[in-house]
Write a structure and sequence with these properties.
CATH superfamily of the largest domain: Nucleic acid-binding proteins
Distance between the termini: 83 Å
Largest sheet: 5 strands, mixed, barrel
Oligomer: single chain
CATH class of the largest domain: Mainly Beta
Radius of gyration: 23 Å
Number of strands: 7
CATH architecture of the largest domain: Beta Barrel
């Protein structure tokens, strides 16, 4: 092989190697920032993983909101109609955050409590995030299929 071909081959090999490394770094960065959406029932089933970062979606359970006096620490429960999951958050909650309304929180599980880093609330009277509505609908369909008819004896 003459020196010109050898240089071209080396250049092409280095270009392919560099593009492969760049692609791998981009894929790793994107994977690290992905946060999947789960409902409380899915989290309690173990679908979310023990230490994974994910989004929790559902409704803020009525009567569950508590704030520590003089601090930004808040706790509440998120429900999908089938299960409830306690949530802990330190920070300023969105203005539209209310009990009985849709919420999506990003964070991790810690000793059975979801520790939220960010909390997002719905923006108007009829809105619920599509992902949350779909997952809650599926949870209710599974619950309705598994439940015995009213008045039936086991």
């Amino acid at each position: 092989m003459n020196p010109v071909r050898r240089r071209r081959l080396l250049f092409v090999a280095l270009l392919v190697l560099a593009s492969g490394i760049a692609t791998a770094l981009v894929a790793m960065a994107l994977q690290r920032n992905v946060a999947y959406l789960y409902t409380p029932a899915e989290v309690l089933r173990g679908d979310a993983g023990e230490h994974a970062r994910f989004r929790l979606g559902g409704m803020v359970e009525k009567g569950s909101f508590q704030r520590t006096t003089g601090s930004l620490d808040a706790s509440f429960r998120v429900t999908d109609g089938d299960a409830q999951l306690p949530v802990s958050y330190t920070g300023i909650l969105p203005d539209l955050f209310r009990e009985g309304k849709a919420v999506v929180a990003t964070g991790r599980m810690d000793n059975g409590v979801f520790v939220a880093e960010n909390v997002l609330a719905k923006h108007d009277e009829t809105y619920m995030p599509k992902e949350v509505a779909d997952k809650m609908g599926k949870a209710h369909q599974k619950h309705d299929v598994q439940a015995p008819p009213a008045g039936a004896t086991p």
